[in-house]
Amino acid sequence: MRAALVIALKDLRQRLRDRTAIIVAVVAPFGLAAIFSTLIGGATQPIELAYAYADLDRSELSTALRDGPLAGIEEAGIASVAETDSAASAREAVDIGEVDAALIVPEGFGAAVTAGQGAELEIIGSTDAGFSTDILRSIAESFTTDVRGVQLAVALATHAGGETSPEALAQLAREAAAADAPITLADLEAETRQMSTTTYFAASMAIFFLFFTAQFGVLSLLTERRQGTLPRLVAAPIRPWAIVAGKAIGSFALGIVAMAVLVLASSFLLGARWGDPIGVAALVLAAVTAAMGITALITTLARTEEQAGGWNSIVAVTLAILGGAFFDLSQGPEILSQVSLITPHAWFLTGLDSLGPASASVVDVLVPVTALVGIGLVTGAIGLVRAGGLVVRR
Fold first, then answer.
1. 92-131, pLDDT tens digit by residue?
2. Which CATH number fits domain 46-178: 1.10.3470, 3.40.50, 3.40.190, 3.30.160?
3. Which run of H or E residues covers position 310?
4. Separation of first and last alpha carbons in the chain
5. Most CB atoms within 10 A, among 32, 99, 282, 370?
6. Where in the chain is the domain with CATH 3.40.190?
7. What gap in Å lies between CA 93 and CA 100, rounded to an integer?
8. Could you give the CA distance from residue 3 to residue 240 in angstroms, rounded to a whole number?
9. Beta-strand runs (E) in the chain
């Protein structure tokens, strides 16, 4: 075992002195994660809209519109609503770009609704703010739907023999508006949350480049065979399995260090939230195991370093695409989500999703960890046996 550790330390020293290995293991994945999260993450920033509201009616309904849905979007931080004294000032605010759109309540709106007559709300939107105008239109349509419900309630009460005086109709309208809705919507917290854009790209780039980092150990067997140092190792008083074990330990340690650096750097510098540290550690160890197993198998099938590097690159990119390392699989066909289960990338990202809630722990990632370790053990066992044969054949 001492010989295996000596070989592993020797390989680690070589890799840490190799700028290419450092770039592949840490610099490239961190840099790409930062770039992607900056460029694509901007689309997830909270929207900030500006509206003008001209209440020419000054009725209970127009006040309810201002204090209800419009106040709601203000409290949610989605939009700001500026009240204007006239329709002309609201139009001017839209024309000069002070607001994205304006909502005008014409005079007599409340009286027309109470009397069961038709009434209209006027929306003025900027040509450069179609999305903002659509949101305001949706708010107005939702409000008018509620108003129609009030009108229907008043009409039914009147048809049933109720009083038809203006005062009685107004009272019925107030009572209908104040009645509890028969159907309500409740907000529920999902058991798992979707990773933020920053966390997603940090994790996806980490697992993607891990496959290039994990190949260094077994790939060095081909390098040493070409350089003529492998026969010297075999001729030394150590067993062939110690050579293979040393290469595997070196790859495993390098993969762990690279992943740890990426987790810490993305957390402190990019603001990524990985979740429970113990659960993340378990996922990282399992992911390194899976990457080592697959790259060991692919590398031992090749005859030269160049061939092994090419094959590993093809496999790494293919698995990353199928595993959702470059895009959210929920945006594609359902079959992609099923096929992704053969990839370590999908299991790693699924495990991080499971660590989303504050109460999540290592127990929540047992299935992804088991899948990753299983992939690593099966492919790694075959790869290490073949690597042992490579040492014996020299």
1. 888 888 888 899 888 888 777 766 676 788 888 877 767 7
2. 3.40.190
3. helix 305-322
4. 21
5. 99
6. 46-178
7. 8
8. 10
9. 49-55, 79-84, 101-105, 122-125
